[in-house]
Design brief:
- This protein is mainly beta.
- It folds into 3 domains: 11-100 and 277-382, no CATH class; 106-185, Immunoglobulin-like, CATH 2.60.40; 193-272.
- It has helices spanning 335-340, 365-370; strands at residues 21-28, 38-42, 48-53, 59-63, 69-76, 79-86, 92-97, 106-114, 121-125, 130-133, 138-143, 152-161, 164-174, 180-185, 193-200, 205-212, 215-218, 228-231, 239-246, 253-260, 266-268, 281-285, 290-293, 301-308, 315-321, 327-329, 350-358, 373-374, 390-398.
- The strands form 6 sheets. The chain has a 12-stranded mixed beta sheet, with no helix packed on it. Strands 4-1-7-28 form a 4-stranded mixed beta sheet.
- The longest helix is centred in the last third of the chain and has 6 residues, at 335-340.
Length: 401
C-alpha cells in the first residue's frame, strides 16, 4: 500500500505544526527498515491526530498529545499486520514487524533414499517448507531459504499412520558444490529422545520445540501420564523452547523456557507461571472495534490480539499497552485505508485473545517500549524481545462477550 504523504490534525485536539511530536521507527524483521508504511497517531477512543508514511529510513514523526497512541500498518502476503501502542513523549519507538516476503527461489536439491516403511503419509520438513512424498528414491527442489545461515540443510522426515508417527529420521545434511544434498535413511527411528520432567507443580502439558538454524521443529507431545518430554533424535538443536501450558489454549497460563541446545531435564514450579486471568473481553462497539476488559495487572505488558478477514486479505490487530490498561478503540481511517482495513461487520468472523506477557529481559512496560516491540509472526508474536535464554511467561483469555 503506497499513498501520498499527508497529515490530518484534528482542531478539537489542539494540534498544530509547532505542537509536540513523537518519533516512530518501523523495521521489517530484526534489522531491515520498512519504508512507505502508514503510521497514525490517535486518541484512546480512535480519533485521529496525524497520519504519515515512513521515509526511506523507516522513520516517521507524528503530531500527538498527552495520552495518545500510535498505530503502524504492515502489509505482507499473509495480510495486514496492524500494531497499536502508546506514543513516546521522548525518544524513538521501534516496532519490529513481520520480515519481508521473500520469493521461494529454487537453487538446491535434496536427494532422499530410504528403507521401506508402512505408512499413510511421509512428510519431509526442511524448515522453510514441507513436502509430501510417496516413494523413494526422491529428488526434491529446495528453496534457498531452507539453508538458513549456512550451506547445511536441516531435515526431518516423518512417516505417519493417521496422526501417529511410526518412524522418522532427522539430520543436518551438507550440500555439495552443485547445491545437492544427499540423505540416506538406512533405518527409521521409532523412539524419541527422552527429557525427564523432574517437577510439574500445576500439572501442565509440556512440549518441546527444537530450533535448528532458526527453523522451528515441534516434537510430538508425550502422553499426559508421562514423566518425560519428547525430542527428535538426530535433529541438531541449536536452541530449544520448552512450553508448559496450564488450562486450555483459550484461557490458560503458558510459560516457555528458552535455552541453548536441549535441556538435561525440565522443571516447572508454580512460581514459573503468571496468575490465571480472571477477566473477559467485552466488544463495546463492533463498528468502531472498541473493546474493554478488567485490567490484567500482571506481567510487563498487556496484548490484545484481534483478527478478521473482511475480504481477500486477513487483518491482525495487536494492541500493546501497560498492564493497567482496560480499553481500546481501533483508529479512525481515511477512505483509502478503510477500503482494505474494514472492521468486521455483518457475518465477518472476529477472534480475539487477551494476554499478559512477562519477558526475561524486560522489567516493566517502559522497558518493553525501550527495547522495541517485536511482532515478527502473524499470530504468536513475543511482543517483548525474543529471549535467548530464560522464561517467557503468559496468561491469556480468548474470545469476547
Amino acid at each position: 500500500m503506497r499513498r501520498a504523504l499527508f497529515a490530518v490534525i484534528l482542531s478539537a485536539c489542539g494540534g498544530d505544526a509547532s505542537g509536540p511530536t513523537t518519533n516512530v521507527l518501523l523495521l521489517a524483521g530484526e534489522i531491515p527498515v520498512e519504508p512507505g508504511a502508514t503510521v497514525i497517531s490517535h486518541t484512546l477512543e480512535g480519533d485521529v491526530l496525524d497520519q504519515q508514511l515512513t521515509d526511506g529510513a523507516g522513520q516517521a514523526t507524528l503530531q500527538f498529545q498527552t495520552g495518545a497512541l500510535v498505530t503502524a500498518v504492515f502489509h505482507r502476503d499473509a495480510g495486514y499486520r496492524v500494531i497499536t501502542t502508546p506514543a513516546l513523549a521522548t525518544g524513538t519507538l521501534a516496532i519490529h514487524g513481520p520480515p519481508p516476503d521473500r520469493a521461494p527461489i529454487l537453487s538446491n536439491s535434496l536427494v532422499i533414499t530410504a528403507a521401506p516403511i508402512d505408512a499413510d503419509a511421509i512428510a519431509v520438513d526442511m524448515g522453510f517448507t514441507t513436502a509430501i512424498v510417496t516413494t523413494f528414491p526422491k529428488t526434491l527442489d529446495v528453496p534457498a531459504q531452507c539453508l538458513g545461515s549456512d550451506s547445511n540443510l536441516d531435515v526431518l522426515v516423518r512417516a505417519t499412520i493417521g496422526d501417529q508417527v511410526v518412524g522418522y529420521f532427522a539430520a543436518r545434511v551438507p550440500t555439495d558444490q552443485n547445491g545437492v544434498a544427499m540423505l540416506d535413511i538406512p533405518a527409521w527411528t521409532t523412539t524419541f529422545t527422552s527429557i525427564p520432567v523432574t517437577r510439574n507443580d500445576l500439572g501442565a502439558t509440556i512440549e518441546v520445540a527444537e530450533i535448528s538454524d532458526g527453523f522451528v521443529f515441534e516434537a510430538p507431545a508425550a502422553p499426559a501420564t508421562s514423566d518425560a518430554a519428547n525430542a527428535w533424535t538426530g535433529l541438531v538443536a541449536d536452541s530449544s523452547h520448552v512450553v508448559a501450558q496450564v488450562g486450555p489454549a483459550t484461557a490458560g497460563q503458558t510459560t516457555t523456557q528458552v535455552s541453548a541446545g536441549l535441556p538435561a531435564s525440565i522443571a516447572f514450579g508454580a512460581e514459573d507461571f503468571l496468575p490465571a486471568a480472571t477477566t473477559t473481553v467485552a466488544l463495546r462497539d463492533r463498528a468502531k472495534l472498541a473493546f474493554g476488559w478488567t485490567a490484567l495487572a500482571a506481567g510487563d505488558v498487556t496484548n490484545l490480539h484481534a483478527s478478521w478477514t473482511p475480504g481477500a486479505e486477513r487483518i491482525a490487530w495487536d494492541v500493546v499497552v501497560a498492564p493497567d490498561a482496560d480499553h481500546i478503540a481501533f483508529p479512525g481511517l481515511d477512505s483509502d485505508l478503510a477500503a482494505v482495513l474494514a472492521p468486521p461487520v455483518g457475518d465477518v468472523t472476529l477472534t480475539t485473545n487477551l494476554r499478559a506477557i512477562d519477558g526475561p529481559d524486560t522489567t516493566d512496560f517502559a522497558s518493553v517500549q525501550a527495547a522495541g516491540l517485536w511482532l515478527l509472526t502473524f499470530d504468536a508474536a513475543t511482543i517483548v524481545p525474543p529471549p535467548v535464554a530464560g522464561e517467557l511467561r503468559e496468561t491469556n483469555v480468548g474470545g469476547f462477550d
